[in-house]
């Protein structure tokens, strides 16, 4: 692969590393043969035995999400540095790599998207489904009006023991899972009412209308956030759950893990 600058011009010129998303073995070997070129492989598994590897919890279909998550993971693991110029090669139209983008690593634009997946015991598909539901609620609201919501994902048994019902649980005898379009419509309707949704590691909706009762002592949340965020942060300190919170006041979606804020997303920019 000598002469990359001549073939690809500015895309590969003076890059600090090439980031390959789920490459074939032969494609990886071709890049490894280039002298003085750092190669990072990103994927759901290290099928090529790469020396430098960042694991994706799931294969994001959206190309921008795939690259964003991969680069945040690479920054988190220290395999790339803030300001690095990167050539990201991935597949868009087929099974093989067919698209290359030049991206600058930016630690200041860290969203926490890597943390919410990498630090969760829940199935990554479940976390993704709940996050997307919260973002959609933030974009559209409830009948055009802003709405707040609190989703507790994972470690459902312990979360149930640290909460109490505010009303009848409509999911008590059901076996429905988040991500189902019909179920998501139900969750949007129920979001108008108080309390948290409790969701298992596998995505089963265990309960709605739960009042969380963990101690808020020692939980540090940003100023201006209210009881919903405090409860979400506190329950994640006392359990292995993740809290995904939609704020009614500012419309942002935030996630907490281990009592700390790890993600903040503006639904309108998603």
From TrEMBL:
This protein's UniProt keywords: ATP-binding, Manganese, Nucleotide-binding, Nucleotidyltransferase, Transferase
SUPFAM superfamilies: YojJ-like
Record has ATP-binding as a keyword: yes
EC numbers: 2.7.7.85
Requisite cofactors: Mn(2+)
Catalytic reaction(s) noted: 2 ATP = 3',3'-c-di-AMP + 2 diphosphate
Nucleotide-binding listed as a keyword: yes
NCBIfam families: Diadnylcyc_Halo
Cited PANTHER family: DIADENYLATE CYCLASE
Record's protein name: Diadenylate cyclase
Protein's organism: Natrinema zhouii
């Amino acid at each position: 692969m000598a002469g990359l600058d001549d073939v690809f011009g500015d895309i590969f010129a003076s890059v600090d590393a090439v980031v390959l998303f789920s490459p074939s073995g032969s494609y990886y070997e071709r890049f490894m043969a280039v002298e003085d070129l750092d190669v990072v492989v990103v994927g759901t598994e290290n099928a090529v035995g790469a020396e430098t590897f960042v694991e994706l919890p799931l294969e994001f279909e959206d190309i921008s999400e795939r690259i964003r998550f991969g680069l945040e993971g690479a920054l988190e693991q220290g395999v790339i540095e803030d300001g690095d110029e990167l050539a990201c090669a991935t597949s868009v139209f087929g099974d093989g790599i067919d698209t290359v983008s030049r991206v600058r690593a930016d630690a200041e634009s860290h969203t926490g998207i890597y943390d919410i997946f990498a630090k969760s015991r829940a199935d990554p598909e479940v976390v993704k489904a709940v996050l997307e539901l919260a973002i959609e609620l933030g974009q559209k609201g409830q009948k055009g009006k802003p709405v707040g919501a609190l989703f507790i994902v994972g470690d459902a048994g312990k979360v149930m023991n640290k909460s109490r019902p505010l009303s009848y649980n409509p999911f008590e005898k059901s076996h429905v899972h988040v991500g189902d379009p019909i179920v998501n419509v139900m969750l949007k309707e129920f979001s108008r009412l108080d309390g948290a949704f409790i969701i298992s590691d596998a995505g089963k909706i265990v309960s709605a209308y739960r009042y969380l009762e963990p101690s808020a002592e020692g939980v540090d949340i940003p100023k201006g956030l209210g009881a919903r965020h405090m409860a979400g942060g506190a329950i994640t300190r006392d359990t292995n759950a993740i809290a995904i919170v939609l704020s009614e006041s500012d419309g942002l979606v935030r996630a907490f893990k281990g009592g700390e804020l790890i993600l903040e997303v503006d639904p309108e920019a998603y």
